[in-house]
Design brief:
- The chain is of the alpha+beta class.
- The chain folds into three domains: about 100 residues, no CATH class; about 80 residues, Phosphorylase Kinase, domain 1 (2-Layer Sandwich), CATH 3.30.200.20; about 60 residues, no CATH class.
- It is built from eight helices and twelve strands.
- The strands form three sheets. A five-stranded antiparallel beta sheet has the order 1-2-3-5-4. Strands 7-8-9-12 form a four-stranded antiparallel beta sheet. Strands 6-10-11 form a three-stranded antiparallel beta sheet, with helices on one face.
- Helix 1 packs across helix 4 and helix 4 packs across helix 7.
- The chain is globular and about 55 Å long.
Amino acid sequence: MLQDQINDFIKNNGFCEHTLKLIDEYINRILNGRENIDRFNIQEHAGFCCAGAPLIGAYIVCSYARTSLESGDDATKSKRCPTNWEIDAKQEKLVQRWSEAKNLWFPNSEKLLTSSFGEMIAQGAEAKVYYKAGDTSVVKERTSIYATLGKAFEAIVLHNTLFPETQMNVIGFTRDSDGLFRTILTQPYVSCQRLATKEEIDNMTAAKGFHDNYNGKGVNFIGDRLYLEDMHPANVFIDTISRQPICIDCIVKFISKE
């Protein structure tokens, strides 16, 4: 399996030229439909591909980081259950090293984004948003509010699966002035007529197979496979053109604790 070869080369050689080529090959096989990630179903695989090659490569590296910790110490070969903190720290470290080798790491990104994409127009707990009047997309620096970086990447995949009208496309990675690891992505600009009502959000999520789980003041929903959280009106707009509710951001997780 190609992931196993990649794991061996990262372990023994770091991100050498051959390792980078193996990761690129795996990315291309995924984009061309010749490889799947077991974690994702068919629809989620499409959302994975839509997120872009940088996200796919980073997710491959995250998979290695987790596997290497779970395999335990080489001397004893004993498996263990690493903490989320350990997994997250190693994933951030290795994704930064890989993205630096691939010229996908952007130091001083806030200055770069402001000069290239316009001023920062919004900032929340999860994202800083940059926009230039007349552009069809916004650019976001998205930090992880998930247990691990890998789960934050999964959330982007799942968002693309559920909300293709506001598809996220990853273009790089950085750390902000506070040292937080951030994913840089583009997303279609939505012209907001008004914020969605609770009833409109309920109807939209119901059409996608979710129901209110009555936990979190009506902003959390559950389906057969996924959780939706933080579905409050500031994250769901009524689009000026379609007059339909559009989710621009939310928290998406697998129900499985794996």
